[in-house]
Design a protein that fits this description.
Helix content: 25-40%
Strand content: 25-35%
Shape: globular
Largest sheet: 5 strands, mixed
Low-confidence stretches: none
Distance between the termini: 23 Å
Radius of gyration: 12 Å
Mean pLDDT: 96
Number of strands: 5
Length: 105
């Protein structure tokens, strides 16, 4: 997964379906989400671009996106935010439903 900062963010999400996952290496919920993402992402990687944002490395991006809790997953299509954000998701089913919904936008 490619990690974004404020300089690379806009160009990275500008085309196609994109999922941006904001988290931090010290976050317990982020650590718990990682193996779930590793199971789910391969099934969608050919249709959705997945990006990470480390709030430790890109705190200004977290602030500009108005993220208050992590992990937060934000969905984009051609640079525009779509769908409702997932805040602290904790199940494979939740992620799969959201990714499938994104592909219908």
């Amino acid at each position: 997964m490619t990690y974004l900062d404020k300089n690379s963010f806009k160009s990275a999400i500008s085309k196609g379906f994109c999922v941006v996952i904001l988290g931090a290496p010290w976050c317990k919920d982020c650590i718990a989400l990682k193996p779930i993402l590793e199971r789910v992402i391969p099934a969608y990687a050919d249709r959705i671009n997945f990006f990470g944002v480390s709030i430790d490395e890109a705190g200004e991006l977290k602030d500009s996106l108005n993220v208050r809790k992590i992990p937060t997953i934000i969905f984009y299509k051609d640079g525009a935010q779509v769908l409702t954000r997932l805040v602290e998701p904790n199940s494979q089913d939740t992620l799969e439903k959201a990714f499938n919904e994104l592909l219908k936008v």
